[in-house]
Design brief:
Elements: H1 7-22, E1 37-39, E2 55-60, H2 75-84, E3 89-92, E4 97-100, E5 108-109, E6 115-119, H3 134-145, H4 152-155, E7 161-166, E8 173-178, H5 197-200, H6 225-235, H7 238-241, E9 252-258, E10 262-267, E11 289-294, H8 298-306, E12 312-313, H9 318-325, H10 328-333, E13 334-339, E14 343-349, H11 365-373, H12 377-384, E15 389-390, H13 414-423, E16 436-439, E17 442-445, E18 447-453, H14 457-470, E19 476-482, H15 484-492, E20 498-504, H16 513-516, H17 518-522, H18 534-545, H19 549-566, E21 569-575, E22 577-582, E23 585-586, E24 589-591, E25 603-604
Amino acid sequence: MKRNSIGLFLLLLLLAACTNNGRQQNDEHSEKKKEGYLILPDETKMMADWSRDNVLVIHTLSDAGYLHPTNYTFQNARLILSLTHPALLTIDQLKMGLAPCMSKELPVVAADEMQFTYTLLDEATWDDGSPVTAEDVIFTFKVAKFPLTDNPLHKSVCENLKTIVADLADPKRFTMVMKTKYVQAVSMVSDFPLLSRSFFDPENVLANYTVEQMDEPSFKPDQVPALSKWAAAFNDSKNGNDLQFFYGCGPYKVTGWESGQSVTLERKPNHWTGSLKGDNIYLKSYPEKIIFKAVKDENAAMLEFKSQQFDASTALTSRVLLELQRDSNFNRNYHSVFLNSYSFTYMAMNMRPDGIKHKRILDDVGVRRAIALLTPVDRIIEVVALGRASRWPSMVSPLKKEFNNDLKLLNYDVAEASRLLDEAGWKDTDGDNIRDKVVDGERIPLQLELLSMVQGNMAKDLANMIVEAVYPGGIKIILKPVEGSVLRQMSTDHDFDLVLSSWAVSSLPQDFNQVWSTASWANKGSNITGFGNAGSDALIDSIAVTLDESRRIPMVRRLQKIIYDEQPYVFLYSPDRKVVIHKRFGNVIMTAELPSFIPNNLLLLNTGAASMPSDMQ
């Protein structure tokens, strides 16, 4: 088969070689890349030009947007709220699981695996000195499930919660009761910052209604004036952007907010977290101030780091961090590490084309596997991710114990791809270098459309590499760059052949229904490929209700094998996290799990107890 042009493909290969050879490997912990976290030793002394101010300035790309403790939407807001409005549990940055936060310990699980008993920290109080109690927890989740609460992104997370029963003998103790067994019955509580009932509902309007009523179809709060009035007040934007209405039990409070530029948090004096009996790093408050400063421009961010204006970041691009790592002064002043992450980029394939607008090409698993074999993933990582990414053979991170180690990565292989396409009946019968076949009575070329984001050079470069790489196999791909909202709509409408997208997951157990069940395809959910059948659905349902790891993990590995064999996605790469922390701080822990470090646990060097709140000394 003849090739017309390989110019762009060869150019990209040359760029990859130049990038790889020209890059200085200044990542001082590259041998640890496959680990989920790093604990770095403290520097032995403060350099003369390092600031002694106990203020941590964190680089972000954007403003927090909205800090409503229930109705927030952005990840930046969640990080800030974790410092001002902690939840019952939090993701354990070190052990890839859950850790107690406002709860004394992980919950006691009943034999039926549907009841979970928690006990709040004895020391926990609100700013007025009143204790944090089960009443506040019940209120928090009642509000989360309340139909008029403006929190669509979070409401579904607690959908399986049936009720919460307070312990009449202990105001700090309560039991969460689920509707069914569910693998995320415990982890879901980490998504909900605790609310003060007395602050947000001083007239106790919601006390007349139970958690269970929130789910009843007959419950019509919009027809009850008192409830409508309360909801309007709670959803009011002042609770998300007016500092005087920010009221949490965490060790920090928001004291400054320059919209679009920065958010300033200050440590509360004489806070209850200073008298904790245990050692909980998620409730420490070593920095006196934490400032989240937004700088989107790459060059401006680079200058800020060169002048030591920032103390921490997970928002730099690989290009910027690699360039900074070539600067000896930067390496003198900062820890900087590329770590594996729980995010991945993929190319989805429409396994159930309509046969009209989208021809029945990708309904053949042999064609899907051939496309995977013609996708130059290793070269894409070098060119697009500058070598700072890793490959996954499935939808589960190799960092997780559920990962199926038996699955092998697919290498670029034109010969094997050609064999599969020949076997599927795709041949070049007219000598135009593109394979063709009679499908539904019509001879059609092996031509597919690839949706990608119109924004950003990375998506463009990635798409172009795929176009060039599949051509030797006799496949023609036409690019269709679209806006993000259009891409999402076309994907869920199944109006595509191929689409580039990405997912962000975590170290916690996953419910695979959202992305892989056939119901999610039928309902135009996140299963955009049409993957699945009754067998895979049954397996996914079993995974979702199995809390016992010894039984659940083999099932997750089996699901990975099914998806691997069916090839609904071409798994491209998982981008490395870029974590930077100034060496003037100790207690440095860098993690694959978001937010990738623990800001409130960073301890200014050479100050010892002086950097702690007075009641922690």
